[in-house]
């Protein structure tokens, strides 16, 4: 799923950044275009929406704080509730993987952590609930807790010790606007064991990304050094971080989605590993072109059309799927590559039917290892690249997700940067 029409896109207000900035709820959304991709789509979108909504869980999970929030209080700022169902599992983890203890209430209607959270820390929360028929619903959220008013921190990705794909930039999101970008950037270095030149580029005044000219070399090691303690980011606002982070680049995997042939070719270390039939965005809601980096992975998650402008006459989402399997985020605005169990098997490889996401054949419950969706999920890393070609839509913007590869090296080096 994904995409909203060009008319809708112009009318919506951007509400998100990326990993440590603001992340939209899981949903598919893209741009509109002509009907040049072929296939009988006269009623496919309505059919797909109806199939997606069929037999959906009635459980409605609400997470506080909202996905992508920052400066969240460490006490009483986090909780989960559910209506028309009961909570069965809630996991809250800090960015270093440390689990936070918490309890589901005796009636199964709410959850909260046992103690105060850490300051200046990013957390990820995943909740599962069931309705009276046993149908599951899932919600995911990430947020950052508050820091002192006279200091700033950078929420960075990847994490220490993580192994990521060759497309993963170093992306730093600051919790306060940076006025002296030159001083802040001078206090940050990113190097690779490959010897590749690495350059920083500012997207606005709160996000700084680093990348080499080409993808990282496979099996290399990248080091991020933050020497921000005492650095003035804005008048009266000082940095507090001195930290070195090292992460690994894994094998090279780049997958190419061709929306005309409706196939995805998975290439690993220069060799074709697998060709998978797909169903991309419909002619009304095509998928963005361009190089997109997998920034998040969820075995199951909720996708609600209302979060990206797909609302029906009652103001509800045109689709609201509580258990989308094997979902991997490709953009901040809601582009995913994910499993699809509600579409007929015949659509994959033959017709584009989604709201802009790339769909792979899958099974409800995300537990069938023999599906295309499961295979791609298990064989993908955060940081792997998915490139979409031959779509009638425009190329995705470099700051919509971790997708700076869609900017030329000359532009990247020229600025805006410190």
Describe this structure in words.
Pathway: Cell wall biogenesis; peptidoglycan biosynthesis. This is Ig-like domain-containing protein. Pfam families: Big_10, YkuD. Keywords: Acyltransferase, Cell shape, Cell wall biogenesis/degradation, Peptidoglycan synthesis, Signal, Transferase. The chain is mostly beta strands and 418 residues long. It folds into three domains: 192 residues, L,D-transpeptidase catalytic domain-like (Beta Barrel), CATH 2.40.440.10; 86 residues, Immunoglobulin-like; 110 residues, Immunoglobulin-like (Sandwich). Helix content is 8%, strand content 37%. It has five helices and 28 strands. The protein has a five-stranded mixed β-sheet, with no helix packed on it. A hairpin with a 5-residue loop joins strand 7 and strand 8. The longest helix has 10 residues. The chain is globular and about 55 Å long. The two termini are 38 Å apart. 49% of the residues are buried. The N terminus is likely disordered.
């Amino acid at each position: 799923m994904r995409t909203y029409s060009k008319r809708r896109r112009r009318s919506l207000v951007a509400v998100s950044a990326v990993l440590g900035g603001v992340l939209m709820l899981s949903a598919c959304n893209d741009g509109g275009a002509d009907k040049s991709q072929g296939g009988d789509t006269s009623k496919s979108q309505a059919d797909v929406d109806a199939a997606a909504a069929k037999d959906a869980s009635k459980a409605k999970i609400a997470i506080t704080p909202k996905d992508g929030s920052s400066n969240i209080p460490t006490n009483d700022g986090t909780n989960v509730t559910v209506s028309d169902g009961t909570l069965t599992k809630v996991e809250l983890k800090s960015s270093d993987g440390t689990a936070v203890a918490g309890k589901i209430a005796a009636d199964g209607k709410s959850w909260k952590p046992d103690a105060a959270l850490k300051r200046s820390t990013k957390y990820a929360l995943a909740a599962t609930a069931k309705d009276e028929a046993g149908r599951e619903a899932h919600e995911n959220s990430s947020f950052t807790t508050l820091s002192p008013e006279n200091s700033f921190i950078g929420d960075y990705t990847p994490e220490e010790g993580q192994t990521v794909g060759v497309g993963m930039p170093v992306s730093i999101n600051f919790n306060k606007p940076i006025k002296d970008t030159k001083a802040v950037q001078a206090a940050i270095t990113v190097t690779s064991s490959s010897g590749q030149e690495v350059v920083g580029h500012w997207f606005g005044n709160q996000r700084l990304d680093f990348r080499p000219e080409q993808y990282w070399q496979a099996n290399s090691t990248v080091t991020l050094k933050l020497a921000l303690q005492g650095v003035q980011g804005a008048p009266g606002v000082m940095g507090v971080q001195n930290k070195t982070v090292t992460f690994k680049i894994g094998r090279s995997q780049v997958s190419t989605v061709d929306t005309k042939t409706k196939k995805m070719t998975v290439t690993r270390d220069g060799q074709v590993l697998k060709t998978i039939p797909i169903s991309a965005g419909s002619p009304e809601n095509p998928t963005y072109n361009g190089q997109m980096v997998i920034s998040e992975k969820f075995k199951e998650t909720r996708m609600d059309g209302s979060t990206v402008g797909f609302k029906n006459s009652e103001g509800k989402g045109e689709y609201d799927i509580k258990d989308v399997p094997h979902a991997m985020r490709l953009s901040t605005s809601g582009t995913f590559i994910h499993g699809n169990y509600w579409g007929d098997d015949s659509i994959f490889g033959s017709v584009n039917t989604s709201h802009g996401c790339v769909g792979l054949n899958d099974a409800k419950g995300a537990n069938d290892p023999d599906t295309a969706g499961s295979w791609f999920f298990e064989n993908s890393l955060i940081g792997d690249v998915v490139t979409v070609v031959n779509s009638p839509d425009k190329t995705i913007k470099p700051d919509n997700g971790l997708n700076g590869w869609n900017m030329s090296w000359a532009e990247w080096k020229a600025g805006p940067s410190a």
